[in-house]
Specification:
InterPro entries: Ankyrin_rpt, Ankyrin_rpt-contain_sf, HET, HetReg/Transcr_Mod. This protein is of the alpha+beta class. The chain is built from 31 helices and 24 strands. It has a nine-stranded mixed β-sheet.
Length: 933
């Protein structure tokens, strides 16, 4: 502790953590403001304020102290919910989209605060949050930039105009002397240029950087040399002559006490005219030392209040994390800086919430808004609301940046938001009213805002490059989980008007009103959420999930290897969630996680340098890695669901999963992927080559091969055997995709590079149309088939140059990125399931869609109880490859490997998805016990 006579705000010794007294002890961070009577406040000398707060690099130094409390004593505090890294959307900071000006949010850049008189370094996003929630922060943000006035702050304007008293007032409130306008000029630049000598002294005394450059490359001294205004000679000498400046500042500090005395006197007169209670609060000290005094705020912040280098303490604090957030009187959600036009969002939220009376009308207005945004984009009228729309283009753009900010995809915020008694949400100086946000999210969810097809249009699939950054609906998932976990009656009542209305154009799941969610359900809902330590994906959700039975108890221990923890949780995940679910269907039945459904969550990321976690069993889901494509598993499928599930961990090695499996078929050929790009691309000729290799003229189901190809490429997402009209729409949509993609494949009128020889493509098209696009009777149908004619492709090829010149060619949407798609077209359904998958052909003549790293020789298997088939690969025992082995040794090794497989992934195999492979078998007939490694 520093004495009240010591003017040093900190020393350079890193702060040290002492051990917490008990398992239920917590540290709380008290931020000391200007009016605090704490001995750590460097502005107090002999009981009096002595001047503006000290600054480092133009930022007022934040003074804090750490104090220890028992949770049972109910100390008054707010918990901060934020993200450690950059607060902006992940997709906006990668590749060509990276904003180099935001790199300072990385772990290598630290920002100083003073904790118990010692220097402590924190990440920038947290530093900005502490600035925002500092007790000296005025109700009116003193650093708010005015977009209509070249982004100038109040301090910049006061310094430019020479208003000395206002400059002092703003500095007292913590205004930043390092703030810049759109020209890169600081308050010191303007004060120096206009010859405001006294203001120049105030700013430099408060820590203003005299060597900073504006966008024209000028320092404040150069600004003073540029114009002969005011007391320019004094300003130039002060900024140029270091010795002169030191003497002036020494005299300046002696003037501070007199200035402060006059300032406080005037403040008391002003406050007495309005309300006498404030002055009483300042003069009376609180009897309860735990209560924050005047000019103080108390927070629980994980990065500071937990010794992050102590694994035992981290584990102990995580165990009581739910209590920490539950007992906080409020949780402050910090979305970070950078959302400069949040006023757009606030206006949009208010407008949408007033439309809760007719959700079909709201859905129509939303579709109109999105269509207008897609076709017209942004421009000078982006803030104007188009006719029959609910959102302006600028509001849609701002919403996309708001709801995909990093906070919404951080795993820990699931717990932090779910347990909060009171939620307050901030983006810079803007505060969002949580009840308004909750209602807004629910309304937009009901009208289809969070559908994948919507967001693929908004950002051309950027977020889907590797799944990181979310699947666009995390904000609503957070709200849903809070509704179930917190069970706040007023929040449920707020949404009654939303949930009681059906939206015919966009049917939605109904949230199941029940208690806390089971761990398997909450993990499935939070698959796209991220955490710095992969173990936190489990530990953070474990504390808000239903209690586990004793036999499944998971120990919160950061010394446990990640793959071991994921294996333990993987066994529970594969067992399903029983009768627990987030949603219920139209009949009121819970849509629970079924046994073995967890296998559909196993995907190899296979994106760039990222791969599957080393040491993790092939059957175990990687809970820390988001999916790169949509799961095939759906409740309408029943490939092996008639068989009784039978699976369990090996009693001697829980990394091995033993299961009853029917080894049904073998892959003999896989789609040629040599021309497939890693991100996403469509290459039609290999599809045609594969179906033309199928052995029979007709498929085993009696369908023509082109129809089989159509249904396989979308994993039967849109097809309905009882709806002939829908089938015709799907057929036409599929035919259109083939025509455009094939026209783009070949060189026509100098377009692009030749991907396939021209004649080869036409030969494939002709062969597919003549031999694979037949009706069940074997006659060419009178109606257009699934395969476009060569003439149709040529016609599109003639239109293609003009289309490419006007709109370009989109890998996701082909020739048209400017048409609203509600997810009912072949292309949109195809995009969901084809990414990172490939077609394959089996020995028995079936066509399937599976992981793109499946290969000939892999086994198509049916796991008893599973709704979809899976691909497995025979295990090979690792050993020496050189030399000769005795025949007995080879036989022994073959017997060891017998019945042992590696899991590759789920698959769609046309013709067996609805139980066709088991239709002539008794329950269990042909199934055998195998081991998945």
């Amino acid at each position: 502790m520093l004495s009240s006579d010591d003017h040093r705000p900190f020393n350079f010794t890193p702060p040290r953590y002492g051990p917490l007294p008990s398992p239920t002890s917590i540290r709380l961070l008290k931020i000391i403001g200007r009016k605090s009577r704490s001995c750590l406040n460097p502005l107090h000398h002999n009981g009096k304020l002595i001047g503006p707060p000290p600054s480092i690099c133009g930022y007022p130094l934040i003074q804090c102290t750490l104090e220890t409390f028992e949770l049972a004593d109910a100390p008054p505090y707010a918990a901060l919910s934020y993200t450690w890294g950059s607060p902006g959307p992940d997709w906006a900071t990668r590749g060509n989209c990276i904003d180099l000006t935001r790199e300072d949010y990385g772990p290598a850049t630290k920002w100083p605060i003073a904790v118990d008189g010692q220097l402590c370094f924190i990440r920038k996003n947290l530093f900005e949050a502490l600035q925002q929630f500092h007790p000296d922060k005025s109700a009116e943000d003193v650093d708010r930039a005015d977009p209509d006035d070249y982004n100038k702050t109040r301090l910049i304007n006061a310094a430019s105009d020479g208003r000395l008293w206002e400059v002092r007032r703003l500095l007292e409130k913590g205004a930043s002397v390092g703030a810049k306008d759109c020209f890169g000029e600081t308050p010191l630049h303007y004060a120096a240029e206009n010859g405001h000598y006294e203001i120049v002294k105030e700013l430099v005394s408060a820590g203003a950087d005299m060597g900073i450059y504006d966008k024209s490359g000028r320092t404040p001294l150069q600004c003073a040399l540029h114009r002969d205004r005011g007391e320019y000679r004094k300003v130039r000498k002060f900024l140029w002559d270091e010795k002169f400046r030191e003497r002036v500042l020494q005299l300046h500090h002696k003037e501070e006490e007199e200035w402060q005395r006059l300032s406080e006197s005037e403040s008391e007169e002003d406050s007495s005219d309005e309300d006498d209670s404030d002055s009483d609060d300042l003069s009376d000290s609180s009897d309860d030392e735990e209560e924050p005094g005047p000019g103080e705020r108390i927070f629980w912040i994980d990065a500071i209040c937990i010794n992050q280098d102590d694994l035992e303490e981290r584990a102990a604090q995580v165990k009581i994390m739910s209590e920490i957030y539950d007992k906080a009187h409020e949780v402050l959600v910090w979305l970070g800086e950078g959302l400069t036009r949040a006023w757009r969002l606030q206006a949009a939220i208010s407008r949408v919430n007033k439309e809760d009376g007719d959700l079909d009308e709201l859905a129509c207005k939303w579709r109109n808004s999105l269509t207008h945004f897609i076709k017209e984009g942004l421009g000078e009228h982006e803030d104007e609301l188009p006719e029959d729309c609910i959102l302006a283009p600028g509001e849609i753009e701002e919403m996309a940046h708001w709801l995909t900010r990093a906070w919404f995809t951080r795993t820990w915020v699931v717990q932090e938001l779910s347990l909060a008694q009171r939620v307050r949400m901030f983006a810079g100086p803007f505060e969002f009213c949580w009840p308004d946000v909750l209602k807004f999210l629910s309304l937009m969810a009901r009208v289809g805002y969070f559908d994948n097809s919507t967001f693929w249009r908004l950002d051309d699939g950027i977020r889907n490059q590797d799944g990181i950054g979310g699947d666009c609906c995390e904000a609503w998932k957070l709200a849903e989980i809070r509704l179930r976990t917190r069970a706040n009656a007023s929040e449920w009542a707020l949404l009654d008007s939303v949930f009681s209305h059906d939206v015919h154009s966009s049917p939605a799941h109904k949230i199941m009103k029940a208690g806390r969610l089971s761990l398997p359900v909450i993990l499935s809902l939070c698959w796209t959420f991220q955490s710095k330590d992969p173990r936190d994906k489990i530990f953070s959700l474990l504390t808000i999930a239903r209690p586990l039975p004793e036999s499944d108890r998971i120990q919160i221990d950061y010394s446990i290897p990640v793959e071991r923890l994921f294996t333990q949780v993987g066994h529970q995940f594969l067992r399903g969630s029983g009768d627990d679910a987030m949603y219920v269907d139209s009949n009121g039945n819970p849509e629970s996680l079924e046994p073995l459904e967890g296998l559909s969550y196993v995907q190899d990321p296979y994106i760039g340098p990222r791969g599957r976690m080393p040491g993790l069993p092939t059957w175990a889901p990687d809970f820390s890695t988001p999916h790169v494509t949509t799961r095939i598993w759906r409740r309408r499928f029943s490939a092996a669901s008639v068989a009784t599930p039978s699976f369990s961990p090996d009693p001697d090695d829980d990394s091995i999963l033993r299961a009853q499996v029917l080894l049904w078929d073998e892959i003999v050929a896989v789609e040629d992927l040599s021309r497939r790009e890693d991100s996403f691309s469509i290459d039609v000729p290999p599809w045609l080559e594969l179906i033309l290799q199928l052995p029979e003229a007709q498929y085993p189901t009696g369908e023509c091969k082109m129809q089989v190809l159509c249904r396989t490429l979308i994993a039967d997402h849109l097809w309905d055997e009882d709806d002939a009209e829908l089938q015709e729409r799907v057929k036409a949509s599929f035919r259109e995709l083939l025509a455009w993609e094939l026209a783009n494949e070949v060189e026509d009128e100098g377009l692009g590079e030749v991907c396939h020889p021209h004649d080869d493509v036409w030969n494939l098209v002709t062969a597919a149309r003549n031999t694979a696009d037949l009706s069940i009777k074997g006659q060419e149908g009178q109606q257009p088939g699934f395969m476009p004619a060569v003439e149709d492709i040529n016609d599109i090829g003639k239109r293609l140059p003009a289309v490419v010149e006007e709109n370009g060619w989109c890998s996701f949407h082909g020739p048209d990125c400017a048409t609203y798609d509600d997810g009912s077209t072949f292309r949109s359904a195809f995009l969901r399931v084809y990414r990172k998958r490939a077609l394959f052909r089996t020995k028995m003549g079936f066509l399937g869609l599976g992981p793109m790293y499946a290969r000939p020789g892999d086994v198509v298997a049916l796991v008893a109880g599973s709704r979809v088939p899976v691909i497995m690969r025979k295990a090979r025992k690792k050993g020496k490859r050189k030399g000769h082995h005795h025949s007995d040794e080879k036989a022994r090794r073959r017997s060891v490997d017998e019945g042992r497989y590696k899991f590759v992934g789920e698959a769609y195999v046309h013709g067996i998805m609805y139980g066709g492979a088991l239709s002539c078998r008794e329950d269990g007939d042909g199934f055998e016990t195998i081991e998945l490694l």
